[in-house]
Amino acid sequence: MSKVWFITGAGRGFGFEFAKSALERGDKVAATARDTAALDGLLSAHGDAVLPLRLDVTDRAAAFAAVKAAHKEFGRLDVVVNNAGYGLFGAVEEITDSQLRDQLEVNLLGVLHVTQAVLPILREQGAGHIIQISTIGGVAAFPSLGGYHASKWALEGLTESLAQEIAGFGIKVTLVEPGGYATDWGGSSATHAVPQPQYDGLRAAMAEQRRNPAPGSIGDPVAAGQAILKLADAEQPPLRVFFGSFPTQIAPHIYQQRLQTWEQWKWLSDEANGAQQ
Predict the structure, then answer these.
(1) Domain 4-250 carries which CATH code?
(2) CA nearest 235: which of 277, 145, 174, 165?
(3) What CA–CA distance (Å, rounded) separates 5 from 74?
(4) pTM for this one?
(5) pLDDT of res. 277
(6) What pLDDT, on a 0 to 100 scale, did the predictor assign at position 74?
(7) For the segment 104-160, what is each residue's pLDDT rounded down to a tens digit?
(8) Cα–Cα distance between 44 and 55 in angstroms, integer?
């Protein structure tokens, strides 16, 4: 049985590949983008199976209107993919208040808007799957991405609570945590803080890493498009899943370090508990 998808940020990158993969197998897709011209190729190839919707996810009323239009067009929503987002590059000392607020408006509040808009529909259906596109940067943090990490770590916490709250309604929730992919995430869609010379050395080192990635560390967006179909079809999907090989390589080490540190400092944790132990 074909599914009905609602995908934000479908004009390029992951969102485009997700929509394309779903449409090519016969599903229907409500595809949103800030500029619907980016959806013309999907529309010409798949006709009425795709509903292009102009949406800036920071506009709460527009998010609710887009969800309403999609539900009216297709009669149900089976898979909701909160994919719209962008990267903010800059050391914590460099980023501005407004840059961080803008980052949170899109990467966190935009997800909140769409999620709140779809929940009454999914609850009434007694079924549905909300897929939040997070990142390995929602689990681990790297230099020059503090603002971006702030938005994704917040998304992870919001989503973990959400999953517990709506499980009783038959609604599934998954955080997809991709590693590096050959998309425009770090290109024209990104925002960069004004650099301070104190961080020039750090920036140079990070740029060198990007120019010479480890073999196999950069994933193919087309493969991610196929992978999300299997995730959407799973009877019992995971709360979290990595996309790409890089996260599977570094995450165990990160968690091992955390466990070791917590154990090493357990004496202070117990001491901080006070006399009532």
Answers:
(1) 3.40.50.720
(2) 174
(3) 9
(4) 0.95
(5) 52
(6) 98
(7) 999 999 999 999 999 999 999 999 999 999 999 999 999 999 999 999 999 999 999
(8) 20
3-state helix/strand/coil string of 43-61:
HHHHHHHEEEEECCCCCHH
Domain limits, the chain: 4-250
HEC sequence for the chain: CCCEEEECCCCCHHHHHHHHHHHHCCCEEEEEECCHHHHHHHHHHHHHHEEEEECCCCCHHHHHHHHHHHHHHHCCCCEEEECCCCCEEECCCCCCHHHHHHHHHHHHHHHHHHHHHHHHHHHHHCCEEEEEECCHHHCCCCCCEHHHHHHHHHHHHHHHHHHHHHHHHCEEEEEEEECEECCCCCCCCCEECCCCHHHHHHHHHHHHHHHCCCCCCEECHHHHHHHHHHHHHCCCCCCEEEECHHHHHHHHHHHHHHHHHHHHCHHHHHHHCCCCC
Q: What are phi and psi of 95, to 5 degrees?
A: -70, 150
Q: Is the pLDDT of residue 217 over 90?
A: no
Predicted confidence (pLDDT) per residue in 112-125, tens digit? 999 999 999 999 99
Mean pLDDT of the chain: 95
Q: Cα–Cα distance between 194 and 180 in angstroms, integer?
A: 24
Token output for 265:
């400092």
Q: Which residues are catalytic?
A: 134, 148, 152
